[in-house]
Amino acid sequence: MEQSERTHLAQSAAEEQASPVARLWTKEFLILTACNLLVFLNLHMILSSLPLYMREHFHAGDFYVSLCTSLMALAAIISRLFSARALELGKRNVILFGGLAIALFGTVGYYFSATIIALLVMRVIFGFGFGMYSTTFPTMVSDIIPRNRMGEGMGYFGLSTTISMSMGPLIGMWIEKQYGFTPLVALGSLFIVILFPLAYKLIRGQKKQARLNEQAAASAAGSAAEGAVPDSTAEGAVPAPTSASKPAASKFEKKLLLPSLLNFLMSLTYGGLVSFIALFGGEAGIANPGYFFLFNALAVVLIRPFSGKIYDSKGPKALVVPGAVMLILGLVFLSFAHSTLGLFGAALCYGIGWGALQPTMQTWMIQVVNPHQRGMANGMFLNSLDLGVALGAMILGTVASMSSYTSMYRFSALFIVIYIVIGVIYMVKAKSIPGQEQTVHIKIK
């Protein structure tokens, strides 16, 4: 094992030993989770409703529908390339509030978009802002979760993302059907406006804690001269960056590649769901296809508390294959669904798989990097998610145009088959290399 990895493991052990009963459910954790819920509710309420809106108002085909998803996601990916680095340099406030302002402008701009080109431009603008602030909140929460409860903590935090991804489409399609697209845009804009005071409250609290950390660090300097190793980070606090912990330039961490690839493959299937589930409902004769997201959310809520604890005790290898199998079952069952009952069965399977795997990928990525690289890890996680959704919408939209939405969902299950093959190959190799699994899952007994 390289020296940097040994140092990282040693620091992790020290953190856990210093705070064996650290609290997870702090005020900061709850506020950040609420912020993340609003972030993704705004995204998915509008994202799922745009295909029908574009069909009805602009007579758009599958290509333009997929562009609406893909361009936004690609803009978010580009913005995260500099957002992650800016977070490492301490520019968190600029990225957070700047991103919120840009996203608010893009969301309000939907109302004034009289052509499909104008709507796509607003999607790109929103994507840039979304990429900035959606990276900031996960990075902030990963700094306050006790390391020995990282899997559990990120699981509960990620539950806000998954619930938004499940309930957002249902809420969005219902509002558009009952009241039209304009009230939906107004509600999405309101969510972003609410984020401003919540974010400001967090920033003020963390500035106060940073001052306490500096005082503790100064006190620690004197103790270190006598051989003491104090715990200079208070419970629930965001560690103050130092010149030792925040290098001038961070190299890309290669251990992020595998979980990023797996997250990407998984997200390809979600791109087909969020972009075409409403159109699939019309083809299959299902009156309310949006119920898929409601049933999916219920399954996620049921599985998430268990999956986080399984990760903390056994690592990602215990969840990768079982979760992927449930995703395949969900997609296959969906392709055969012609009633609400069939939709329920498909959503239950898919929700169990997604609810177990999504926080697993994010926690895995956070744990293989040093603390100052968590912005990079969260950026990679979100980029692989958005890239998967973007390309998934384009690829599966092409498949649907050449066949049917039923065939499209069966085809999308092949992405998860590839996911399983890659995951199994990695786990087999990890067992044959001494110390390899330790670098994937940090667990202090």
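Second entry:
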Amino acid sequence: MFERIGRAFSVLAGADPGPVNRDPMAPRWWRDNLGTGSWAGEPVTAQSALKIPALWAGLDSIATTAAGLPFHLYERGADGLRRATNMPLYELLHDQPNPNMTAFEFRYQMSWWLAFHRAAYAEIRPGASGPVSELWPIHPAHQRMFESNGRIWHEISQPGKPKRYLADDEVLALRLPPFADDGLTPVPIYQLGAEAIGRALALMRYAAEFFKYGDGIGGAIGWDDRWFQNQESADQFLKHWHENTRGENRHKDVLLPPGGKWQRRSQSNEEAQFVDTWKQVELEVLKLLRVPPHKVGVLDRATFSNIEQQAIEWVTDTIVPYLTVWEQAVRRDLILNPSRFKAEHDVNGLLRGDTVSRFAAYSTALGGAPFMSVEEVRQRENLNRKPDGEIPRPLNLAQPGDGGNAGAVAEGGGEAGPAPLDARRIVELREVKEGAG
């Protein structure tokens, strides 16, 4: 710990923190305030992008799924992997990473940032449990990565707190490429997809103005020159027209001056295919996150025959990359002995499929060339362990050495019923029956 503090003070005391671009026109000074421009004319910022319901729902779906999966620390041994529940890191990942947050809250927030900013960071604090005792999230906008003297450093600038520096071994860093020109900072999704997000924002603004101004149908009013002596009187009439034809007055009758004529000059929502356009823009936003439409309630192309396959693709194509980033970052930043320990998510619950298909797969795994035991199947189904002999087995799943006793033993230690016939005796009885027939 003292070595880390010394390194941090060396940076503050004079070590070169790397070149700083002080050009007032540099993008880093403007992108968070004015945003990235779009052809639709809407500036795209982190704040404005989150106004899009499909984007927000997609981020929530990714973060909820990633945070809800069991995240275990395993220890390698002679008999394979076992959960290292006695290790402090297990509790940090599975239960509580710091005194103020549960594991779900921590992993949800980190996964949200990872999907939206393509990066998420957490400070590693030592304590009574060792060098990794607590994990505290750091907003990606409040940190800057740079390289100095062959090391990666994090400049932390949190509101209301003094600026500080953390070394790379003091930060859990989750990052998703592509990276910016510095090779360290990922490019946020609202910059990568600025055009799609800009179109969605422009369409939302159009819809808001449509409802704000009533029917949203603009037009031109023709009149006789004698009714308006100057431009001021014409402006007064137009102001009066707006006040009496929009908002709460949009359904009231209006009176045009003699000779006046109304001519529509804009399209209705039906003519502009607003709904179809919005659906297309919504799909473009979801593509940025690789989120299938059915995960955010868009079921236009979902059917009962393909929804299960889409659910599996949601895990393999969308969620697994995020889980891989988590597992590899934990291995690099938190595990001191990666040859002995590993962290891994349990995605079996998301890939279980329907009951009939799952039990058919178990039957295959226990059948002719078995590669699973009954206890392993029960563990997959979250069932309690049973003492040997209490698990009922069909005759065709009798294990070598059973001696034909494949039936169930009575619960509570009572006497079992009659032992079923072994396979050879069944064949003999069948041959006798067929001969008699």
